[in-house]
Amino acid sequence: MEQAKTFFSRYFFPFMVLSLFLFLYIPIVVLIVFSFNDNPYTYQWSGFTLQWYHELFASVEIWDALKNSLIVAASSVFLSTIMGVLLVFYSAHTFFNKAFVLFYGNLVMPEIVLAVGMLSAFSFFAIPLGLTTLIAGHTLLGLGYVVPMVRARFIDLDVRYAEASLDLGATQGQTLRKIILPLLSPALFAAALLVFIVSLDDFVISFFCAGASTQTLPMYIFSMIRSGASPVVSALSTVLLVASSLLVLIFSSLQIKKTDVL
Questions:
Q1: Domains and CATH numbers, the chain
Q2: Which single residue of 125, 142, 152, 183 could bond 80 by disulfide (Cβ 3.0 to 4.6 Å)?
Q3: What pLDDT, in 10s, does the model give residues 232-247?
């Protein structure tokens, strides 16, 4: 019995964990390697080149799609953060406090359901699809991340700070700006960074809410791969991978600082 436990703990479980990591990261490694492939047909290696990165940074369509993605991501971060903070602060001691569980629905339900619901609402109210509807969809998606994170930090705050501020004559707005927001800053930065990453990489809501006049970077990648795999797509995916990894590292460092503060 002891030999079987030793075998599983020493050999089998490490092998399974290593296999899982290989299964997750081998496609990413292959993607990065073939973004430097000199052969336009990515299934055969023929030499090292930076040609696809030159084409990538020289493409006007890609820069336009990136600009739209950054506009949507920045707008959704701003709107979802402001709306989330105001909702958490001004609804903390009202009957709306029981309704915060509804914001976890964005995380539980499939994103395709949220996208179809947003499209149905826009069609019902005859709102033309474009950059505005895309920002609205990503803001709704971002609220599902901002509200739970900010509320979790808000609940842990010492209420005596806010009570002392109000007793000394400060208004609720002044208390929010000078007391609550500085204490919430680690959670706010972490939530804003997470919403930015999710919005920048989102495809489903963008596909349903953008319309024909607006194209984001994930939608542009989808349109490129419909005609076959291209080394430019591999180069673009590699650049996005590096950018997303940097943002995730920043998010992780903020989460560590948040834990230290708590």
A1: 60-261 (1.10.3720.10)
A2: 142
A3: 888 888 888 888 788 7
